[in-house]
Design a protein that fits this description.
single chain; 463 residues; mainly alpha; Potassium Channel Kv1.1, Chain A; Helix Hairpins; two-stranded antiparallel ribbon; 6 strands; K_chnl_volt-dep_Kv3; potassium transport; membrane
Length: 463
């Protein structure tokens, strides 16, 4: 039999092809649409270089591929010729299965970078959707083309300032964080206009500062302005968001809710009730809501919406959760073991390692190479154990951290390519075509069923 693959002829016999009866070549006969009677061969418009590996599989019963080939192309050829991927030799199995990992990576990046189209700006959509879609894209991703559509209007010069909206958001977040920090510094606080001493806090200078002083008026005005800005942005996003339930499922938006609305209530209670300390219930609510200040600092995670690097870092930590958990688990086990051991090594010392939890605290600091120095061993056996503890800590962190760093490098490189393809208007995540003719449906169904049966045997043979 003569097989003409893209102009290159391969000669074999029918018995060789029938060794794999469920493949495409095993079903060839003179009635096949690929048969050319005038030349007496079977023509396939495929890559002859790739077919070399396919033909070698029929002859030697082993399927190998060069590792410089694209794994998607290899899978496409296997699907076309009706060859099960489980027939790939163990030495090439990891290379062929990279496609699944790449697809998982692409899915994570598409979700993190918001590359999926939320609004389809087609004519079938209502006018309201087509009107608010650019504004949602502008608020959510100021680097997009829809954002440019809003911010580059030539009819009004004020919109030119919005072209770098992400920088304004970053500036507002930084200013809000600095405002929180400076409001706890004595030079930026003034005596309170109204006494709010309601609890016995005279022995705690931090609480006394909070009860007897107020932030500087400039900080108060800035705080009110920034709170109004973030509240207005959040309300506008709620109005123009495409899917409200999806919007509130986003953890960053939940942080925004917890950061903004308690602050609005705190400001209302502080300046709406001058004698707040005389209303015990209101004062307790006010005191409780002030604890949500920490979420205002957590708003810094919103930087990830406007900067690719931070989003890739969050994706990396999410994808490396198992490695991170393994690292924390080893650290925890090591801290407990060395904490107990150092307690017994220092049992004769009167001034160090008073209990086992202090020993675990010392062990964790030593294994992470922090070493505060507030607790140290003083005996010979304790110092010898400290050397072993520090070396083991270096080994544990040295094994796990490079895995996370490699994941970040892979995700970051892939994200740059995906963003470049998006700017060029190319498909972000193109699916490779499965070249199966309509009359080959039964063939592919048989191959898929055989895969389920042969998978167990493959694992038993090679694992």
């Amino acid at each position: 039999m003569v097989l003409n693959i893209g102009g290159t002829c391969f000669q074999t016999n029918k018995g060789t092809l029938e060794k794999w009866p469920h493949s495409r070549l095993a079903r060839l006969d003179t009635s096949s649409p690929n048969y050319r009677p005038d030349r007496g061969d079977y023509f396939f418009d495929r890559d002859p270089h790739m077919f070399t590996y396919i033909m070698d599989f029929y002859r030697n019963d082993t399927l190998h591929f060069a590792h410089n080939l694209c794994d998607s192309v290899v899978r496409r050829e296997l699907h076309y010729w009706g060859i099960d991927e489980e027939n790939v030799s163990p030495c090439c199995w990891g290379f062929v299965t990279q496609h699944g990992e790449h697809r998982a990576t692409d899915d994570l990046l598409c979700e993190a970078l918001d590359l999926d189209e939320i609004y389809a700006l087609s004519k079938d959509k209502p006018m309201w959707h087509r009107a608010i879609a650019p504004w949602w894209t502008f608020l959510d991703d100021s680097a997009s083309s829809d954002a440019a559509l809003v911010s580059n209007w030539e009819t009004s010069s004020c919109f030119a300032l919005l072209q770098n909206y992400s920088y304004w958001i970053a500036f507002a977040l930084l200013l809000s964080t600095l405002n929180i920090i400076f409001s706890t510094w004595d030079p930026f606080r003034v005596p309170a206009r109204y006494s709010r001493v309601h609890f016995n806090v005279t022995n705690n200078p931090k609480l006394m500062r909070f009860e007897t002083t107020d932030p500087h008026p400039v900080l108060v005005v800035l705080d009110i302005a920034l709170t109004g800005f973030f509240l207005g942005e959040f309300i506008i996003k709620c109005i123009v968001c495409p899917k409200v339930h999806t919007f509130f499922e986003n953890s960053l938006n939940v942080i925004e809710i917890v950061a903004v609305f308690p602050k609005v209530i705190v400001l209302a209670l502080r300046y709406g009730f001058p004698d707040l300390a005389n209303h015990r219930q209101l004062y307790l609510a006010y005191y409780f809501l002030t604890m949500f200040e920490v979420f205002r600092v957590a708003r810094l995670f919103n930087f990830g919406k406007h900067y690719v690097g931070l989003r890739i870092l969050m994706v990396t930590m999410h994808a490396s959760a198992s490695e991170t958990f393994f690292l924390v688990f080893l650290m925890f086990v090591g801290a407990v073991v060395f904490g107990v051991a150092i307690y017994h090594c220092e049992i004769r010392s009167l001034h160090t390692m008073a209990d086992m939890h202090t020993g675990a605290y010392w062990a964790f600091n030593t294994m992470t190479t922090v070493g505060y120095g507030d607790v140290v061993p003083v005996t010979f056996q304790g110092r010898a154990l400290a050397i072993v503890c520090s070396l083991l800590g270096l080994l544990i962190t040295g094994l796990a951290i490079p895995i996370i760093a490699n994941s970040f490098d892979r995700y970051y490189s892939q994200a740059r390519l995906m963003l470049m393809r998006q700017r060029l208007g190319c498909p972000i995540d193109p699916m490779y075509p499965v070249d199966v003719d309509a009359d080959d449906t039964e063939l592919m169904a048989k191959v898929l069923s055989d895969r389920m049966v042969g998978l167990a045997g493959f694992r038993l043979q090679y694992e």
